[in-house]
Each structure stands twice: as structure tokens, then as C-alpha cells.
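anyone seen this seq b4? input:
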Amino acid sequence: MGADTAGRGVIRRAVAGQRRDVAVGAALGVCHQTGEALVPVLIGLIVDRAVVRPDGGALALWLVVLAVVYAMLSHGFRFGARAGERAAEQAAHQLRLDVVRRVLAPHGGAEAGRPPGALVNVATEDARRVGALNMALTLGIAAIVGVVAGAVLLLRASVPLGLLVLIGAPVLMALGHYLARPLEHRSEAEQERAAHASGVAADLVAGVRVLKGLRAESAAVARYRSTSQASREANVRAARAAALQTGLMLTLTGAFIALVALVGGRLVLSGSIGLGALVSAVGLALFLPGPIAVLAWVGAELAKARASAARIADVLAAPGETAGGTTEPAAPSAGELRLHGLGHAGLHGIDLTVRPGEHLGIVVTDTADAATLLHCLARRCDPDRGRVELDGTPVTELAPAALRSALLVAEHDAQLFDGTLLDNVTAAAPAGADPQPAMDAAAVDEVAATLPGGTSGRIGERGSSLSGGQRQRVALARALAADRSVLVVHDPTTAVDAATEARIATGIRRARTGRTTVLVTSSPALLAATDRVVLIDGGTITAEAPHEDLVRDHPVYRTAVLT
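predicted toks r here
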């Protein structure tokens, strides 16, 4: 499916989901535009029936009618605009939810090739632009009725003037659509550049401590300046296109109105219409630029919405990292994990069974092989050969969300979130579960003691107020609090001191009693607390025994964990 077709699908869903509010807003907008068109006609009638031939009673009556029409058009605009704005905001909100839901989908893939800032831009500004199309449709439908009503009323006053408007208005609308095409392309480029600039800014802010440590501030500033400059230039080009489109449409609209006034003036001079009709015709000629300008604005909004919709569709249609299964795992899961002849990248023929409730250590001499193993267990990729099974079912057959509910892979570089320490620990915990055992196991009480407010203290974006070891402990507590049947943890204590590491080793064992736990690490303290350890060297399993036996008998293992 092409980007343009997919983008149109996004627009259709955004509009169809809010059709009721759009319809209500359009109906009330029609009342407003119709009332606006009737005002000059009523003034013309007042001139003919109560001013040319003075009549106080008729004047009072028509002034009451005029007041009623004003009240109608005022309330029509007020409540119609409210319905249109509601439709726009609700559609934008739904699109934001769709984008976030896709980014967070268990099968992943939406973030591939897109920095976080770019995804934020899609979920905010692009969603807003597509949602705003509902407001544009509300006003556009009302504007079309306003043009038609003005033309009909002009036909009643003068057939030539009415025909002129009926022919000229569609021509102006077609020209507006044609002139909006360059704006669509430049708007898309503007959003791409803005998303890239947001991504660069997010990366720089996240790594500000590293940049300061490297004394690379000037290089970072130069990088952002270049990206921001490119975004500014794209924005200026889009603004120029919008200004050109608006200016040309205003010029064409002015020329059209001048032509209407010229024809009307000739008709008055020829005696074809009277004074009241002249007043009505002039009033209608002054009224018509409003709805025609709205139609030109609708064309510009449609161009922007199409560009943004294509970007949203690109994220929503992003292929997943893995193909999803449909089978639900046994509930509760026994926690048996098996690898049958697993081969991927540097791994070759890995056969391993982790028994339910076992506390297993895995030492991998090559960090790349460790990453590959974790990706296969987390199903961020499927192995080229062999398979991974959970309770006898291949993980490729399990629904991704269901797999995540039974098996959690807590990677070494797990990120924390802005909020309180407790919020981070309980982010994935079952509802109503007590997080204290997990915090005790990960020695988070020491972290809480350093924060104003304790566990209710805020830790800053990505845990910026914490040290590296403190962040590791909070991330480990979060993994433990999730209480999955199978937990795989990668190097959870590389930044903590030896005494704390020993405490954590005992704490993990205690917190995970009866639950399957796999520790992918080279930490002697953690490995000493396991039931057995598997050594993967050169991509294959070369040894399997308790930690003490491997330290005593296996030189490669001894080198891996003691040096």
C-alpha cells in the first residue's frame, strides 16, 4: 500500500470516528452561514419596505426579524465551532493513542530507524494536523452552503449576478486545490525536518552528562545548530508556500468580488434592480469573500493533513520485529524454559533446559553472543535455527502480549522514567501487589534514603538524579516486582559495590523462590547464589556445573568471572 493511500485511510478513520460532531458542527455552521447571507437581504428589504416608504411599524417588525437572525447565526457559530473543535481534539487524541499503542506493541518495530523525538513529533504535531481536518470540514461544509445561499439570494435579486457566482465559486475552489499542492509537499518536508530536530534534541538532552564529561559541548551545539537550521529553513519554505497560496487566493477572490460589484453596478445603472436589491447585492458581495476564503483555508489544511497522515500511516504500518503468534500460555505458567538447537548470529546449537523454579546462571564470554541470546529469549528476533519453548510451546506460537506476561527479559540498559521511585518500581507490578519484597531484594531502601520524600521522591527524567548503581537497583526492583513466571536478568549489578552486590544476590534468590530465574552475568556473587551455571564460549555450551566447581575446574570460566 502506498503512503498516499495509507494516509487517506488514516484521514478517513479520523473523520469517520467523529462524524457525529462533524455533522452537528456542520449543521450549526450552516445556520451561521445562512444567517450571514440573510443579513444583507434583510437590510435590503428594510430599505425597500420601511425606509424608501417610511413605515415605523414595518421597520420595528423587520428589525426584530433581523435580531432573531443575528441570534441564530451567533449561536450557530458558537456551538458549531465547539462541536468542530471537539471533533478535532478527539480525533487527534485517538490518533495519538494509535501511534503510542503501535510504538508500545509487543511485536515492536515501529521505532526502527526513528529517533524518539521523531515519534513524539508524529504522535503530537502530526496527530494534531490530521485531527484539525475535522474542524476544517465543519467550516468547509458551512462555507459551501454559504456560497450557495449567497448565489441563490443573488439569483433572486439578479439572474446574471447569481450565475456569475455559481460559475465563479467552483472555479475558485478548483484553483485553491491546485495551489495547495506545493504546500502539501513542503509541509511534509517541514515535519520531517522538525521530527529530526526533535530527535537530535532528545538524544543530546539524554546524554548531557556524557557530553559534559567528554567536553564535547561545542560539538553537540554545532550538531543541533545544523539540524535546527535545516528545520527552520524547511519551516520557512512551508510558510512561504502557505503565504503564496493564501495571497494568490485572496487576489483571485478580490478580483472575483470586484467583477461581481462591476456587474451589479451596471445592472443598477440600467434600472434592472432597485435600491434595496442594490444594498442586498453589495452586502452579499462583501459577504462572499468570507466563505470563499474559508474554502481556500480548508484546502491548505487538507494539504497539511495529507502530509501528516502519510507519516502517521508509515508508523502504524511499520512491520514488527517478529511475526505474532496467537496461542495463550498455560495459566499459571510452570516456568520451564527450553532452547532446542538454537542458532543465531554467533550462537550455534544451544541446547538448554531451565527447570521450573530453577535459579540458573549463564556466563557468555562474548558480549555480542550474550546480546543475541537475550534478544532470542525476549523474542526481539527469531533464531535462524532451532527454537525457544516456554512450558513446551514454541514462543513463536505464543501471542506476543501473552508471552510478555509470562516471561520478562530485563536487559542491562533498562531505562527509568520520570516520576517517583515507587512509580518506577511498580510500573509492571500486578495490581495490588506489595512492592516491598522486590525493593528489599534489590537494596532500594538505600536509594530511597537519599531522596527527599523517600520512595515518593522523584528521580528525574531517566533517573537523572540517581547514580548508575542506584538506577540499576531500581530497574532490578521493577523487574522483580513484575513477578513473572520466568525472569531473565542481564548484568544487574555492574555498577554497585561488592557488599551491596552480595546482599542483592541473596535478595534475588529469596524474592524468586519457586520462580524460574536466569541470570546472564559474570558476577561471582550472583553466580554463587545459583543452582548451576552454564558457560557459553565460542557460541556453544562448553561447561555446566555449580559455580564453585567451574571456578575450580574450568580455566575459561575462571578467567571470565574472576578477571
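The first strand starts at residue 337 and ends at 344. The mean pLDDT is 83. kinda curious what u guys think
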